[in-house]
Write a structure and sequence with these properties.
The complex is a heterodimer of chains A (about 525) and B (about 260). Chain A has about 525 residues and is of the alpha/beta class. Helices cover about 60% and strands about 10% of the residues of chain A. Chain A has 23 helices and ten strands. In chain A, β1, α11 and β2 form a beta-alpha-beta unit. In chain A, about 45% of the residues are buried. Chain B is an alpha/beta fold and about 260 residues long. Chain B has a six-stranded mixed β-sheet. In chain B, strands 2-1-4-5 form a four-stranded antiparallel β-sheet, with no helix packed on it. Chain B starts with a helix and ends with a helix. In chain B, about 40% of the residues are buried. Classes of the chains: A alpha/beta (about 525), B alpha/beta (about 260).
Chain lengths: ~525, ~260
């Protein structure tokens, strides 16, 4: 607990700005959802057919799983990562409660009041603005409250597409198996949700237009609060605007990619006069690659085998040189993505087990698994399950068929699952520090099934051409990190729970990249 | 002769009006009736007789299936519905005051819709509040939920009077009030109407109320007009057994109550 508080304190300024980014994502999406949802709700009360359509659509939106929606929006926005797709997703989810409560609020109007409004001679517009909407305010606020509270939770997922916020800590914590970091994101997020809930709840009670006395003062207080919030959001937006000469270094989810991302960011800061934005823990290869193509990212770490299979969608090959040449040529030609020289280590898929179990069963090689496929429980990440060089190929290459269907779960949870004996066999990364720290072993790929996965830096070609010093800085690590070094670095983070930024900085100092 | 006709021109005239609801229910089956300027006309009938339908055709809350309704000599179909309603006072049983507006703003609502400036509205609203027996200094700033039922209905009447219309429609206006309050308001309203000479069409199922307030009565049953005339005519020359039985109950009540 004490240790956690120390960590939280050391992160205070980063944490505060993440909270602010989070809050501004939520507020902006709610304002947009109100601007869209209230007119739609009003429309729905005017025509029965419109009600069915609007509510049906909002209901469908609500049922789309959030990750699927984010993935879909990424494609829709042509690979743009960051705020735009995140904001869109949050608006989509906020719409239903706002539309629903607009309808409820208007339909809940006292029929006598409604009759009087028509009978006195109000036009439809006057009825809406003078009677229906003012009286729907408390119910509408109830919808806004529900939408806001769930947006606070939903916004944590936005970090997976580089929109920042408190989710950054949660994703970092999951990928580093570090519960302290998860809590660092989760606790402020929960606090924010409670705060929004009680503030809007207060407004709901205070802004009841039928309660006469004192409501004018209440309106002033709440108005002032709203203005203050928006000033905060505006300030956040102005300060975070990416200026010219700002370089964005990203990374996929995974310790070593974050570590090298940190190193690259520091090198760029030290060797050039460019400013660096760090967007780590992005969703996956396609998120990063599309962002790179699009200019939303300037550099990230990728692997040759992954690029061949997931980006170029070509069948796996076994010759490392051929794969590298193919990837370099195609990515540059097709997408304007520069592929720099390999860093010096390979991170291939590794089939891992508990060391003790492997010893007990006498398992050393992947082909040994055949003897035990009836009772081993397997688990793989979604990427492994769907790739050409993943699960299906592995089964075919080794003539395996496990009796129990493999479990599909987040790649980062696999090591823990094996260590805790929920699973027996999983596909991990060969350089992962957790293999050593959790006492797991890697089974030998005796039939050379897994294609080469050389780590290297992918960069936006246009940015490199614009800043020659950037190319130089990003190339500094080429050939300088071998697999042993990488595993050690990973262990510093995964095993010893140290900050990636700190470990990266230490490495750069020790190896004289920095003075 | 021509002049005579001009003078007695009815302010509202229903001409062979039929109203069939989409469900097939015939609410009105060929009603012809007139309301003359300055009089109080009570439309009487049991529930479901079509009396409220008759009223709501006047301010175009309903449209007739056939026949015409003329207001001030012009068929309602030629009136812009908004302009028509703004020119007619409207009072309903549950008042329908705006719960988010104070009493003064409720009374001045029609004036606001007509575009009168705020100071004029407030001055006029205070005037009518006094006319219906509510002291503005005490009631102007209150919200409807802070008033009693009788006070609320007085506000409803004030709201209908505020724009000084020549015609007021009332749909069971005092039906929800307790008997004592009801009699009090009826009497006050009758006096006020005599002074203002506003034409009033009032729908009620309460014969005592009708006899007390109205100059003429129109009895509706099952969508047809049964008899029109002064209260005495109904007593002396009932048009049918239905009229007789309808009034028999009322008379018992009238005779019982000390007046």
């Amino acid at each position: 607990m004490n240790e956690w508080l120390t960590l939280a304190w050391s992160q205070r300024s980063e944490l505060a700005s993440a909270t602010l980014v989070h809050l501004s994502l939520v507020l902006e999406s709610i304002v947009l959802a109100i601007l869209i949802g209230v007119p739609l709700g009003v429309l729905a009360t005017r025509r029965k057919s419109a009600e069915r359509f609007v509510l049906g659509l909002a209901n469908i939106f609500q049922t789309i799983p959030s990750l699927a929606l984010l993935g879909f929006l990424l494609i829709l926005f042509g690979g743009t990562i960051g705020k735009l797709p995140a904001l869109t997703a949050l608006v989509v989810y906020a719409l239903l409660p706002i539309i629903k409560n607009t309808i409820l609020g208007i339909q809940g109007l006292d029929p006598n009041v409604a009759e009087a409004a028509v009978g006195l001679g109000m036009t439809p517009w006057q009825r809406l603005t003078l009677v229906e909407l003012p009286l729907a305010v408390p119910v509408l606020l109830g919808g806004i409250r529900i939408a806001t509270v769930s947006a606070v939770g939903m916004a944590t997922i936005a970090a997976s597409i580089g929109a920042g916020g408190l989710g950054t800590y949660i994703f970092r914590g999951v990928s580093l198996s570090d519960p302290r970091l998860i809590l660092l994101g989760a606790i402020p997020a929960a606090g924010l949700a409670l705060l929004c809930d009680s503030l809007i709840g207060l407004a709901e009670r205070r802004l009841d237009p039928t309660k006469g006395s004192g409501s004018r003062r209440n309106r002033w207080v709440i108005g002032a609060l709203v203005i203050a919030l928006f000033a905060l959001v505006l300030g956040e937006n102005l300060s975070s605007r990416t200026g010219p000469g700002k370089i964005v270094i990203g990374s996929k989810d995974g310790t070593e990619m974050i570590l090298i991302g940190q190193m690259l960011a520091e090198l760029v800061e030290a060797r050039t006069d460019l400013k660096v934005d760090r967007k780590f823990n992005l969703g996956g290869s396609l998120v990063c690659y599309n962002a790179l193509k699009d200019g939303g990212l300037d550099a990230y770490v990728e692997y040759t085998g992954t690029a061949l299979a997931a980006i170029l969608k070509e069948p796996p090959q076994n010759d490392p040189k051929a794969v590298y040449d193919r990837v370099k040529a195609e990515c540059e030609r097709r997408d304007g993505v520069a592929v720099l020289d390999p860093l010096g280590f390979e991170n291939t898929f590794a089939i891992v087990m508990r060391a003790k179990q492997a010893r007990d069963l006498g398992l050393k090689k992947i082909s040994d698994l055949q003897r035990h496929q009836g009772r081993l429980r397997t688990g793989f990440g979604p990427e492994f399950m769907s790739r050409a060089d993943g699960y299906d190929g592995l089964m075919k290459a080794y003539g395996l068929s496990f009796t129990e269907r493999p479990r599909e779960l987040d790649r980062n949870l696999l090591y823990q699952a094996v260590a805790q004996e929920t699973l027996d066999v999983a596909a991990g990364d060969s350089t992962d520090g957790r293999i050593a720290s959790l006492d797991l072993v890697v089974l030998d790929d005796d039939r050379h099934y897994f294609p080469p996965y050389e780590a290297l830096v992918f960069a936006n070609l246009a940015s490199l051409n614009r800043h020659p010093a950037l190319r130089e800085a990003l190339s500094l690590l080429s050939g300088k990190i071998d697999a042993d070094k990488m595993r050690l670095l990973n262990y510093e983070v995964d095993g010893k729970r140290r900050e990636p930024a700190e470990v990266a900085h230490e490495f750069l100092l020790l190896n004289k990249f920095l003075e | 002769m021509v002049l005579d006709q001009e003078v007695s021109k009815p302010i509202v005239a229903w001409r062979d009006v039929r109203k069939v609801y989409p469900s097939g229910l015939a609410a009105l089956d060929g009603v012809t009736l007139e309301a003359n300027a300055g009089e109080v006309l009570a439309i009487l009938g049991t529930s479901g007789s079509g009396k409220t339908t008759l009223l709501k055709l006047v301010n175009r809350l309903f449209e007739p299936s056939s026949g015409t309704i003329e207001v001030r000599g012009k068929p309602t179909s030629d009136w812009d519905p908004i302009a028509l309603r703004l020119s007619i006072g409207y009072v309903i049983q549950d008042v329908g005051l705006m719960p988010h507006l104070d009493i003064l703003a409720n009374v001045g609502l029609v004036l606001k819709l007509l575009g009168h400036p705020k100071p004029d509205r407030e001055q006029r609203s205070q005037e009518v509040l006094k006319q219906v027996g509510l002291e503005p200094s005490r009631f102007a700033g209150l919200r409807p939920h802070q008033l009693s039922g009788g006070q609320r209905q007085r506000v409803g009447v004030a709201r209908a009077l505020a724009a000084n219309p020549d015609l007021i429609l009332m749909d069971e206006p005092f039906g929800a009030l307790d008997p004592i309050t009801r009699r009090e308001i009826q009497a006050e309203f009758r006096d006020l109407q005599r002074r203002l000479k506003t034409t009033v069409i009032i729908v009620t199922h309460d014969i005592r109320e009708a006899c007390h307030i109205a100059d003429r009565l129109a009895l509706v049953d099952a969508g047809k007009l049964v008899q029109v005339g002064r209260a005495a005519d109904f007593h002396d020359k009932p048009a049918s057994d239905f009229v007789k039985s309808f009034f028999a109950d009322a008379e018992a009540v009238v005779l019982e109550s000390p007046r």
